[in-house]
Structure formats: C-alpha cells, structure tokens
Amino acid sequence: MDKQVSERTTSQKALRLNLDEKKYGTIVEIGAGQETARQFFIAGAAAGTIAKTMSAYDMKFSDAIYGVQEDGRYVSRARVTAMMEQEFDLVVDRVGSIRSKSSRYFAYAATVAAKSFNRDNECHAWCGVRIQMYPGAPPSNITVHVRMRDDNAEAQQQALGVVGVNLIYAAYYYFEDPKKVIDSLTDNMKKNRIEIDSIDFQGPYFEDVDNRAINLHLIRSWKTRAIMFYPDGSVAVPAEMLYKKNVLTIRGSFRPVTKLNVDMIEQGQKSFYDIHSVSKENTAVIAEISLNDAQGNDNRVPEQDIVARVQLLNALGYSVMVSDYTRYFSLRAYFRQYTKLHIGIVVGMINIKQIFDESSYRGVEGGILEGFGKLFPDNTNMFIYPELDEHGNLNDFTSVKVQDHLRFLYRHLIENGFLAGIECSDSGLFSIYSREVLKQLPNGRGEWENSLPEGVVEQIVENKFFGYRERK
User: 113, 31 in Cβ contact below 8 A?
Assistant: First the structure.
C-alpha cells in the first residue's frame, strides 16, 4: 500500500472526502449509534459530502422505511442491501439534477447488533456502500460482515465508525484493487478489535471479481481465520451456516477430491448420525482446506487453485471451509464459537499418528495434554478411517502404535468414546492417490477419471483445472 495513503488517519480520510465536492451521499446506521457519520462531522466540512444521516432504531419505523425482508431479520445482508439501494436512489433523485454533472454519489449503510446491557449476545454488523465509480455510472456495491471483539458497546461503536470511513474511502480511492480495499478496512485500528469474515463485490465495475477468490484474501490479510462457502459457491457467514447445527468436518487437500475422500465423508456421516439427537437435517457437513503446512506456514497456494478445489467440492453438494488453522483443537475451537452442539471430525490413520506426535505441540505450554484438553472438552468425537499397510492388510484405529508413555492416553480416548473407527466401503479405494491423478491430467482424458466422483471429471475437463490439457 502507498505509504502516504496508508498513514492517513481516520479524520484525514474523512476530511479528504469532505473537501471533494464531487463526492456526495447519505449515511444511515441502525443499532449502534451514528459513529461513521460522526467521524465525518468531527473532521469538518461535512456539508460538502453528506446529504443526510439517519438512524431508525424502532423496528416499526425501520420497516416502514425499508420494508420487511424475507428472512425477517434486521441485522442481515438483505436489510443492509435494501438500505443502500433505497438511500442511493433517494440522493440521486433529489439532488442529481442540481449538482455538478461530475458528481459521484454514494450511500453507506450499517445495521448492527452491538453488545446489549446485561446480555451475552452475538455482536456483529452488516456494512455496505453503494457507489458510482465514475459520474453517471450505474452503482456498484461493496458489502462486508463484521464481528466486533470489544467487550463494551461504546468501543464497538467506535470501531464500526472507523470501518465505515475506511470502507467509503476505499470504495472511492481503491476500487480498482479489491485486495487493497480489504487491506485498508482495519486502518487506524488495533489488532483483534474486529473480524471481517465476508466481503462481497457486486455491480458493473466488479463483474470480473471472483468473490470466492477475493474472500480468501481476508485470511491472508489477517481479517479472519476462516472463510466458508455454501454448496452453491456463495460465501457464507459462519454464524448463519452453523447456527444451532451439529458440525461434521473432514480436512484434506482435495486436489482434486477423489472417491476415497467421498467415502471417508459418507462413512463418517453414518457414524455421526448414530449419536443421539444428531441427524442429517440438523448437521452441517463441511470439507475443510487449510492454507498451512504441518508446521503452520502458509503454503502460498494461488487463490484460483483453492477456488478450483472449492468448486469441485461444491459440485458434490458439500459446504467448504478454507482456514489457516494447523492443529485440530484450533479447528474445533473455531466451530465452538458458533454452536454448542456436537462436533465430529473425520480423519485418516496418518492424522491420528500426527495428533499423537508430541513434536506437533511445540509452542503449546501444556504440550500434548493441553492439546487434547482443548480438542475433547465437550461433545466432540473423532472418527478414524482405516488404512492398508504395506502387506495389503486392513488396519483400523485400534492398531495405531503410539509411544509407550502415551498408550494409556490413547486407550482412555477410545474407551470413553472420543475416538471411534469407521469402515471403508471398498478396499479398492486405497489405491487412489490425488498426486497420481494430478500427474495424468496434462495428458488429457484417461484412467484417472475412474478415481474421481461423478460430476468432478466434467468440471476438471470443462475448466481445465490443475493443468488439464486436451490430448492432441
């Protein structure tokens, strides 16, 4: 980021906008004060930029102004979109004919659930700006979902005010570089005050932006630890996907997803649904891809490569999570933020051996015992898929060899139901290796197709994923 621009304070950003007579619009904020508008007023000369500010705290007033959204919620993507659209149309209709033809209009909206008095509620907000990228242009939208980490409403409001200014400023000055938009959203803010777990670029100027790929930059820019995708490929807000859901997850590279991967998921589902009160209807099944290697370093895999894997998993009907988590207990803690119900983790035998490798816990003060204490404190089970040894014998989870001083810990986890074995539906699946499939793709269609689930082959061929080339 340009050094001069990156050092602008929140007030300097607001003042630069205020002093530009060609930028003009409305700011509407519901649920946590009018902190974004306040930043523009503090900076001075706000009359040059702000046509109107408004809050509609009462639900009846809010419904009368913006209508009732289909989901019935007030802090939602649908509500903030309705706010942006209506306010943008109003400002253009009312002053478009009397202001300079070089004007570029905007509408900023935020709908917020800040910390309530004497309640332990989820603190989050939907914020968005609808803006003309050049005079007379049809508008484009940038919408973000924010989780507030401060422990009091006043601090949360202040943080959202900074985010709001940063978003409006970025929409005007960084719109040609969506990654720079993301990088700038936490300018002038201490770490860990907010988390941004979803961003959406829509409109004529952003037609070439792949929202799946750009959301991955939220992880690499430390705005969040994970991004989630619905089976239709749209970016999900974790709190919405996981609300009152049991979670079954499997980690893999899925490059590409194979029949073996699918069997692991399906066998894990069978065992997970045997748990009391767990069913297909109340469970989110999630394929998880970590950006990190076993040592916690970013593999620097290109975003389009990750998107290809997400697309193939989506084609099979799975939700997908991409994270920078290395250890399983961190993955479990992430899910526990959003659900108090059961968590199931499907792993292979190699993963169990890694989990019982004490070197994996370097930097963890309590070592392996702390790791297991964080992995299995409540309603968490690990389902272990068998493997074939070098002699062609099928080994299940009871045959895992751990160090002598850990064998009673392993037995404890088995006897108390934290670890359980699952079956393989076809031993022939053990001959499938993603790396062997990848080697064959540059040679066109062939035997590799037999290793992949129905629907995945067609996606690889059509999109030329992972270096696939038509045979000449």
Answer: yes
Q: Residue written as tokens 């009152």? A: 244
Contact 287, 265 (CB under 8 A): yes
Sequential pLDDT tens for the chain (472 residues): 444 445 799 999 999 999 999 999 999 999 877 999 999 999 999 998 999 999 877 777 888 888 887 777 788 999 999 999 999 999 999 999 999 999 999 999 999 998 887 667 789 999 999 999 999 999 999 999 999 999 999 999 999 999 999 999 999 999 999 999 999 999 999 999 999 999 999 999 999 999 999 999 999 999 999 999 999 999 999 999 999 999 999 999 999 999 999 999 999 999 999 999 999 999 999 999 999 988 888 889 999 999 999 999 999 999 999 999 999 999 999 999 999 999 999 999 999 999 999 998 989 999 999 999 999 988 999 999 999 988 888 999 998 889 999 999 999 999 999 999 999 999 999 999 999 999 999 999 999 999 999 999 999 999 999 999 998 7
This prediction has a pTM of 0.92
Separation between Cα atoms, residue 26 and residue 448, nearest integer Å: 56
What is the chain's Cα-based Rg? 25
Q: Are 129 and 108 in contact (CB under 8 A)?
A: yes
CB-CB contact of 246 with 415 (8 Å): no
Question: What's the rounded Cα separation, in Å, for the pair 76 and 2?
Answer: 34
Can you tell me whether residue 95 is helix, strand or coil? helix
For residue 321, the SS3 value is strand
The answer to whether the CB of 253 falls within 8 A of the CB of 245 is no
Pairing relationship of beta strands 380-385 and 419-421 according to DSSP bridges: parallel
For residue 343, which amino acid is it?
I
Which residue is listed with tokens 């393989």? Answer: 424
User: 214, 178 in Cβ contact below 8 A?
Assistant: yes
- Alpha-carbon distance 57 to 76, whole Å? 15
Record the tokens describing residue 118, joined without a space. 């004497």
Q: Which two tokens stand for residue 468?
A: 């696939």
